[in-house]
């Protein structure tokens, strides 16, 4: 977990340095060329720079140990700050790009001057964003390989959104740079600012999509996702293999941070066990589960009869008639 946090921190720092330098260069180019697309890209880079600061803050805050007020730790705080990144991308980056685009389309736009400066800045920005994108992509691909998941499945299941946020920001930046180049180029050869304004609108649309995707990822994590189905299946096998267990009635898990899982199990113990025997079994199973899956911080075990009608109704309501009580 410490290694993953360190890798995420490096990814964010690389993105922060790249975005800050790019933002200053784009601002100068926007002033010189009068390009609305370039101004949109400058705003985008300033937003990304602020976002990296938020991600770093979230990484640091989420690493605090559990305490009396937060017995399961602060892992979910990372998701809160990542959600703010999604809000910032739309609220500051996308909306500014839309304003620039519509202002150029309906206001006539400024005459373009010295587009060569814009081309140079875009080329340099593309290289720097590419470096950040490659660093972030390597981190995400390595994490997906460690989880033995295809990239798409990893993005759906990940409990570590920091590197994913950086990769999606950088991907949006690279696409935005392409649109800015096309807007600048078409404005130059046609003399019509329409293309510049249209490029700004496309940049705003890209940022809106990225903000929506990041928002959805972090919304699910904040609400409380179930852990990886493979982990849940592994826990069930450990419980089912115990000779003292008659039936695994229900297992509920929740992601409470990056590589931090809370597990709760309802087990039907074999009849005839004494209370002290049940207690010793619970302690052993807790040790076995956390030993097999270090990411599980807490295991709660509740002895229950599987034929209890109220319990059955609750389990069926969650899983349907084909749930664990009918297997």
From TrEMBL:
Name of the protein: Cation diffusion facilitator family transporter
Domain of life from the UniProt record: Bacteria
InterPro entries membership: Cation_efflux (IPR002524), Cation_efflux_CTD_sf (IPR036837), Cation_efflux_TM (IPR058533), Cation_efflux_TMD_sf (IPR027469), SLC30A9 (IPR040177)
Membrane topology: Multi-pass membrane protein
Subcellular localization, as worded in the UniProt entry: Membrane
A Pfam family it matches: Cation_efflux
Keyword Nucleus on entry: no
Source organism (scientific name): Actinocorallia longicatena
Coiled-coil ranges per UniProt: none
Positions of the Cation efflux protein transmembrane domain: 12-222
Keyword line: Membrane, Transmembrane, Transmembrane helix, Transport
Record-annotated membrane-spanning stretches: 79-104, 116-134, 166-187, 193-214
């Amino acid at each position: 977990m410490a290694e993953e946090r360190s890798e995420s921190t490096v990814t964010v720092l690389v993105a922060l340095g790249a975005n800050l330098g790019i933002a200053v260069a784009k601002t100068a180019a926007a002033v010189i060329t009068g390009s609305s697309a370039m101004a949109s890209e400058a705003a985008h880079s300033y937003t990304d720079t602020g976002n990296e600061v938020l991600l770093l803050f979230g990484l640091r805050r989420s690493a605090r140990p559990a305490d009396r007020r937060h017995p399961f730790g602060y892992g979910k705080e990372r998701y809160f700050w990542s959600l703010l990144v999604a809000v910032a991308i739309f609220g500051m980056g996308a909306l500014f790009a839309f304003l620039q685009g519509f202002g150029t389309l309906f206001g006539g736009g400024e005459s373009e001057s010295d587009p060569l400066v814009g081309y140079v800045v875009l080329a340099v920005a593309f290289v720097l964003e590419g470096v950040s994108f490659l660093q972030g992509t390597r981190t995400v691909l390595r994490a997906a390989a460690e989880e033995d998941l295809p990239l798409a499945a990893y993005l759906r299941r990940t409990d570590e959104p920091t590197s994913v946020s950086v990769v999606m920001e950088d991907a949006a930046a690279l696409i935005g740079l392409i649109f800015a180049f096309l807007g600048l180029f078409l404005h130059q050869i046609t003399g019509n600012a329409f293309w510049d304004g249209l490029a700004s609108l496309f940049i705003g649309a890209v940022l809106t999509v990225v903000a929506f995707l990041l928002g959805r990822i972090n919304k699910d994590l904040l609400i409380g996702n179930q852990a990886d189905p493979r982990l849940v299946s592994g826990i069930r096998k450990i419980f089912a293999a115990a000779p003292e267990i008659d039936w695994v009635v229900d297992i509920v898990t929740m992601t409470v941070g990056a590589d931090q899982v809370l597990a709760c199990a309802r087990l039907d113990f074999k009849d005839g066990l004494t209370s002290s025997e049940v207690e010793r079994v619970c302690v052993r199973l807790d040790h076995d589960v956390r030993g097999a899956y270090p990411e599980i911080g807490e295991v709660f075990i509740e002895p229950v009869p599987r034929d209890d009608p109220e319990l059955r109704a609750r389990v069926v309501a969650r899983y349907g008639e084909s749930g664990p009580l009918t297997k």
